[in-house]
Write a structure and sequence with these properties.
Keywords: Heme, Iron, Metal-binding, Monooxygenase, Oxidoreductase. InterPro entries: Cyt_P450, Cyt_P450_CS, Cyt_P450_E_grp-I, Cyt_P450_sf, Cytochrome_P450_Monoox. The N terminus and C terminus are likely disordered. This protein has a 3-stranded antiparallel β-sheet. A two-stranded antiparallel sheet has the order 2-5. The chain has a two-stranded antiparallel sheet with strand order 3-4. The protein has 2 domains: 296 residues, Orthogonal Bundle (Cytochrome p450), CATH 1.10.630.10; 26 residues, no CATH class. Strand 3 and strand 4 form a beta hairpin. The protein is mainly α. The two termini are 22 Å apart.
Length: 349
C-alpha cells in the first residue's frame, strides 16, 4: 500500500497488501529474503486450523494427517520452518566464518537485527543458544507478529476511511509532529506524541480485535456468578471479541468512537475490558512493538494519502485465527501532494 497510489479510480485491497508490508518489516528485522512463500503458507495454516477445529474427529493427529487437509497442513508447516531455519543457518555460517570479535566489529554503528541478538545471546549456563532454539524464537517473531499486526493496521485504515473527520484529525496531529523535521523520519520518542492517533488505533483494536479469542487453563476452581464451577485443569475459551462488545462496559459497542480512550474517559475502565493483546503473564510479548509498527505505518500513510472507502465492496467480517474480511478491505488511496512520491517507508530509529 505504501509503495504508491493505485491508478485513478482503482481501489487497493488493504488486507491483501498489509500482510506483505507487515511481514516485510519483520523479515527486515529478522534479516531474510522477500517472504512471499511464507505469507502464502501462513494464510494456508490459518484457514486449515479453523477448519480442523470444527471437525471433532480430526482433533486426533493420526486421523488428521491421513486427510488431504492434514497433508496440506504439514506441507505449509514445512515451508514456514524452512524459511526461518534457512535464515538462521546462513547467518550462523557467516558468524562462524568471521568469528565473534570480527562479527561484532562489523556491526559497530549499524542496526543490530533480531537474528544477531539471538546468535550472540547466552542461556542461563552461559552457552550459545542452539539453532533449534533460535529457529523457534524466529518462528514466534514472524508468525505471531506479522499477521496480527497486518489485521490491526487494515482495520484501523478501514475505520478511518469510514470516519473522515477522525482521519483528518489524525493527519493534522501527525503534520504538527513532523513540521519541524527535515525528513519524514519518525523517531521513537515521536510515538508518544500521537495521542489522538493512538486513541484511534485502540478503538479499532476494540471494535475489530485481530485475535478474537484465546484459550486458558484454569489453575484453580473458578466459581461463576450463577453458582456453576469451572474445575481446575479445564481449558476455557475466552472471547476477546465478546468482551470488547459488551454493552455493559462499552455503550453502543458497534460504534467507532476513539474518545472512549481519552485518558479522562478510560481511567475508570475495568482493567480487563480491553485486551487486544490478551492479558496476564501469558499476554502478547510483542504488543509494544506491534503498536509502534501501527503508529509508524499509519503516520506515513496519512502523510501521503487520503484513505477513502470503496462502497461498492461490502465488508463482512470473517474470524479465522485472525479477524479478516471475507473479500478483503478495499480502499481508495488519493495522493495528497509531493510527499506521496514513491519511496520506501522511513525507518523507526
Amino acid at each position: 500500500m505504501l509503495q504508491g497510489p493505485a491508478p485513478p479510480g482503482s481501489p487497493s485491497s488493504d488486507q491483501g497488501t498489509s500482510p506483505s508490508l507487515a511481514c516485510q518489516l519483520h523479515a527486515e528485522l529478522l534479516c531474510c529474503r522477500t517472504p512471499s512463500d511464507y505469507i502464502a503458507a501462513i494464510l494456508e495454516l490459518s484457514s486449515l486450523v479453523v477448519r480442523r477445529q470444527h471437525r471433532l474427529l480430526l482433533h486426533w493427529d493420526f486421523l488428521y494427517h491421513l486427510t488431504p487437509d492434514g497433508r496440506r497442513f504439514r506441507c505449509a508447516c514445512d515451508t514456514v520452518h524452512r524459511f526461518t531455519a534457512d535464515v538462521v543457518q546462513r547467518r550462523h555460517q557467516a558468524l562462524d566464518r568471521l568469528g565473534r570479535e570480527a562479527w561484532l566489529k562489523s556491526k559497530q554503528g549499524k542496526t543490530v537485527d533480531f537474528i544477531d541478538i539471538l546468535l550472540l545471546a547466552k542461556d542461563e549456563d552461559d552457552q550459545d543458544l542452539s539453532e533449534e532454539d533460535i529457529a523457534a524464537e524466529a518462528d514466534t517473531f514472524m508468525f505471531e507478529g506479522h499477521d496480527t499486526t497486518a489485521s490491526g493496521l487494515s482495520w484501523v485504515l478501514y475505520n478511518l476511511a469510514c470516519h473522515p473527520e477522525y482521519q483528518k484529525r489524525c493527519r493534522e496531529e501527525i503534520k504538527d509532529l513532523m513540521q519541524d523535521k527535515e525528513s519524514e523520519e519518525i523517531e521513537w520518542e515521536d510515538l508518544s506524541q500521537m495521542p489522538f492517533s493512538t486513541m484511534c488505533i485502540k478503538e479499532s483494536l476494540r471494535l475489530h480485535p485481530p485475535v478474537t479469542a484465546v484459550s486458558r487453563r484454569c489453575t484453580e476452581d473458578i466459581k461463576l456468578p450463577d453458582g456453576r464451577v469451572l474445575p481446575k485443569g479445564n481449558i476455557c475459551l475466552i472471547s476477546i471479541y465478546g468482551t470488547h462488545h459488551n454493552p455493559a462496559v462499552w455503550p453502543e459497542p458497534q460504534v467507532y468512537n476513539p474518545h472512549r480512550f481519552d485518558p479522562e474517559n478510560s481511567k475508570n475502565q475495568p482493567p480487563l475490558a480491553f485486551m487486544p493483546f490478551s492479558a496476564g503473564p501469558r499476554n502478547c510479548i510483542g504488543q509494544n512493538f506491534a503498536m509502534a509498527e501501527m503508529k509508524v505505518v499509519l503516520a506515513l500513510t496519512l502523510l501521503r494519502f487520503a484513505v477513502r472507502l470503496d462502497e461498492s465492496r461490502p465488508v463482512r467480517r470473517k474470524p479465522e485465527l485472525i479477524l479478516r474480511s471475507e473479500n478483503g478491505l478495499w480502499l481508495h488511496l488519493e495522493p495528497l501532494g509531493p510527499c506521496c512520491e514513491s519511496r520506501p517507508p522511513a525507518p523507526l530509529s
